[in-house]
């Protein structure tokens, strides 16, 4: 950098202050001085020092190393050989100051007004710092440090850029700042920029109509309203579903689509649906239009008492809505059970949370309502005890002791017989209508006997033949895992151990029975 001072004989002058970095070398140059100077005297005052009594340099130009932080004052006195009136020679003076900084911070934003859906770029790449230091970097948003932007030991200013993602700021005024600090001297420089974040108003639509309560066959005029209002110019299509089997799609360019008309031939309640679309987004709304004097649509509402029942305790569902007859009521209790009366009761036999739903229908339309029902057991009985492990054999499950039982099979005894593998459960009443729930999974094995004992009575004899014949003829399939659906006479019937019950197993038994000694 060259600091050029031009001393004018008529009147000295001072140039504007210059800002440079610590460790820079500047050239003080007086070659632009007018006239024919005969001498040059430079006086350099360092930050915090006193003006020198002797010239720092008497050359027309000289290099100056700026090795201290602060304000340097540079004065130039130029002498001329001409005699001044009253004696002596002409002199002219000029001076300037140099502000020496460790760091100089610059911060620019991608925009000073963004929406909540836009990102914001913080750009500090125009910052500068002395080659003698490595500054610390602190980006702040609304005076709170923003860690994703901060760089440890930046090699140069080119790394001082960061993008704040969309949605980070609430709508309103904000401030961004960048602070660079020399960790040794403590000197710092900060730049701040104010900016504003504007909320994005999503596209919204509504419509009005006249007459408000038209007669059947009357022409109804409808008008669209969109928000924000300027979005009207961006609409591409408006699609009307009149709820009478007819649909109208209107192009919005170039003539607009803010008005439509329709006639309903029959009286009724029509849920008119409007969908508008731009290139980027869409909005929709449904309004109910009454045509003529139809029955009032029902309102589905109900209570459940108790709302959080105990297991195997009845829940009373009471219809509290409204419906002009004739009405139909469709209840779904969430466990597969249904009802069709206005106020039914229902008993849940498995703990859990169910969604009870009511749909009410009349000539004016239909409406639905639902409530969550949480069912809890009163106690925790022990798991059932299983006896028997073979496919095709009777498997007994014995529940914990109690005064009443309810099995997933529908049985109400303490012990039940099942024939298939799978999941079962039992509710056990310990007394006083206190029911507990206990699940059980029946796992079975293939007990096929290669020795031909199909009925597993401990002997291979003629009784094994009819036992296997009944199993083959019971219609529950040939797979061993299906044995037990109809007949439970031959748990050892898979003599060939191929996981199938077929005539080959019967032949194997006969071969064993009639084999020679």
Topology summary:
Layout: E1 2-4, E2 13-14, E3 18-21, E4 25-29, E5 39-45, E6 61-65, E7 70-83, E8 89-101, E9 103-104, E10 108-109, E11 113-115, E12 120-123, E13 128-129, E14 136-141, E15 144-145, E16 161-164, E17 172-181, E18 188-198, E19 204-210, E20 219-227, E21 237-241, E22 247-251, E23 259-263, E24 268-277, E25 282-291, E26 302-305, E27 314-319, E28 328-332, E29 338-339, E30 345-347, E31 352-362, E32 365-375, E33 385-387, E34 395-398, E35 404-407, E36 415-418, E37 422-429, E38 435-442, H1 464-473, H2 503-513
Parallel strand pairs: 1-4, 2-8, 3-8, 11-18
Antiparallel strand pairs: 4-6, 5-7, 7-8, 9-13, 10-12, 12-16, 14-15, 14-17, 17-18, 19-20, 20-23, 21-22, 21-24, 24-25, 26-27, 27-30, 28-29, 28-31, 31-32, 33-34, 34-36, 35-37, 37-38
Helix pairs in contact: 1-2
Relevant terms:
517 residues, mainly beta, Immunoglobulin-like, five-stranded mixed sheet, 2 helices, 38 strands, 43% strand, elongated
Brief summary:
The chain has 517 residues and is mainly β.
How would you explain this protein's 3D organization?
The protein is mostly beta strands and 517 residues long. The protein folds into five domains: 2-101, Immunoglobulin-like (Sandwich); 103-198, Sandwich (Immunoglobulin-like), CATH 2.60.40.10; 204-291, Immunoglobulins (Immunoglobulin-like, Sandwich); 302-375, Sandwich (Immunoglobulin-like), CATH 2.60.40.10; 385-442, no CATH class. The protein has two helices and 38 strands. It has helices at residues 464-473, 503-513, and strands at 2-4, 13-14, 18-21, 25-29, 39-45, 61-65, 70-83, 89-101, 103-104, 108-109, 113-115, 120-123, 128-129, 136-141, 144-145, 161-164, 172-181, 188-198, 204-210, 219-227, 237-241, 247-251, 259-263, 268-277, 282-291, 302-305, 314-319, 328-332, 338-339, 345-347, 352-362, 365-375, 385-387, 395-398, 404-407, 415-418, 422-429, 435-442. Strands 2, 3, 5, 7 and 8 form a five-stranded mixed β-sheet that branches. Helix 1 packs antiparallel against helix 2 (503-513). The longest helix has 11 residues, at 503-513. It is elongated. The termini are far apart.
């Amino acid at each position: 950098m060259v600091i050029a001072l031009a001393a004018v004989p008529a009147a000295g002058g001072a140039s504007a202050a210059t800002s440079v970095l610590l460790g820079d070398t500047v050239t003080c140059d007086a070659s632009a001085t007018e006239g024919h100077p005969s001498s040059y005297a430079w006086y350099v005052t360092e930050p915090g020092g006193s003006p020198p009594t002797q010239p720092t340099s008497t050359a027309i130009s000289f290099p100056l190393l700026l090795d201290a932080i602060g304000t340097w004052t540079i004065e130039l006195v130029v002498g001329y050989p001409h005699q001044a009136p009253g004696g002596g020679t002409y002199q002219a003076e000029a001076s300037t100051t140099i502000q020496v900084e460790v760091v100089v911070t610059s911060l620019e934003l991608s925009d000073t007004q963004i929406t909540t859906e836009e990102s914001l770029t913080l750009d500090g790449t125009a910052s500068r710092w002395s080659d003698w230091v490595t500054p610390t970097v602190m980006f702040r948003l609304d005076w709170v440090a923003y860690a994703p932007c901060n760089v440890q030991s930046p090699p140069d200013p080119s790394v001082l850029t960061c993008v704040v993602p969309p949605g980070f700021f609430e709508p309103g005024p904000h401030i961004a700042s960048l602070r660079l600090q020399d960790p040794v001297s403590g000197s710092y420089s900060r730049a701040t920029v104010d900016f504003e974040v504007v909320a994005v108003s999503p596209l919204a639509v509504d419509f009005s109509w006249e007459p408000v309560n038209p007669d059947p066959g009357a022409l109804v005029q409808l008008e669209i309203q969109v928000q924000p209002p300027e979005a009207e110019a961006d609409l591409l299509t408006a699609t009307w579903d009149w709820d009478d089997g007819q649909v109208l799609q209107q192009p919005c360019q170039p003539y607009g689509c803010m008005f439509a008309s329709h006639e309903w031939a029959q009286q009724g309640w029509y849920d008119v649906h409007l969908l508008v679309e731009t290139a980027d987004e869409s909005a929709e709304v449904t309004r109910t239009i009454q045509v003529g004097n139809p029955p009032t649509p029902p309102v589905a509402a109900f209570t459940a008492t108790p709302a959080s029942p105990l297991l195997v305790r009845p829940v009373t569902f009471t219809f509290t809505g409204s419906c002009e007859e004739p009405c139909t009521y469709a209840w779904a209790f969430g466990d597969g059970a249904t009802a069709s009366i206005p106020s039914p009761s229902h008993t849940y036999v498995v703990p859990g949370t169910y969604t009870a739903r009511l749909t009410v229908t009349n000539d004016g339309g239909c409406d639905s309502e639902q409530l969550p029902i949480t069912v809890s057991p009163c106690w925790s009985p022990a798991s059932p005890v299983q006896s028997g492990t073979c496919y095709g054999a009777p498997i007994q499950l014995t529940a914990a002791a109690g005064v009443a039982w309810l099995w997933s099979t529908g049985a109400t005894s303490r012990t039940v017989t099942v024939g298939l593998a799978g999941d079962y459960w039992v509710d056990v009443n310990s007394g006083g209508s206190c029911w507990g729930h206990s699940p059980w999974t029946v796992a079975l094995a293939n007990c096929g006997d290669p020795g031909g004992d199909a009925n597993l009575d401990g002997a291979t004899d003629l009784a094994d033949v009819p036992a296997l014949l009944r199993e083959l003829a019971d219609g529950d399939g040939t797979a061993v895992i299906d044995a037990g659906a109809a007949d439970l006479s031959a748990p050892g019937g898979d003599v060939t151990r191929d996981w199938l019950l077929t005539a080959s197993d019967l032949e194997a038994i006969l071969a064993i029975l009639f084999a020679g000694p």
